[in-house]
Amino acid sequence: MALRKVITQGDDTLRKKCKPVTVFDAKLHALLDDLKETLYEENGYGLAAPQVAVLRRITVIDVGEGFMELINPEIIESSGEQRDLEGCLSCPGQWGYVVRPDKVKFKAQNRNGDTYEKEVTGLFARCVCHELDHLDGKLFVDVADEMVPEEQLREKKEQKA
Ligand code: NI
Description:
Oligomer: single chain
Low-confidence stretches: none
Bound molecules: nickel (II) ion
Structural class: alpha+beta
Number of strands: 8
């Protein structure tokens, strides 16, 4: 495994639409392993392939409910609404409120190409939506309804603690 460099806002690669994965081989597995290592190194909830400059429909997620690999993911049902703060490894220092569905059912393939379905809620649902946006060249800053300066965020966190 190896760490990959996470590219940041301003790099055009993040704005491109990713292509589906069609070959489930050792090269894909190596990329997935690298994404996992990079995700944990960066302390993120999710990381999408375009964030390491690979334009394929791949993302890895761990919001504390276990590590998951999503290849060619598609949302097939969504319901409810939640509004909460989001950040992104590709938008360092930026935080904003984004409205997302509260419940999401998605289908994806695993590293062997087998299709699975999963229904998730809350933070996991938010993260799936955020990562899928990456695969279509969208960043959370495009859909945030209110950006929050980091200094203000620290104050808020201190007030809560
Ligand atoms: Ni992101």
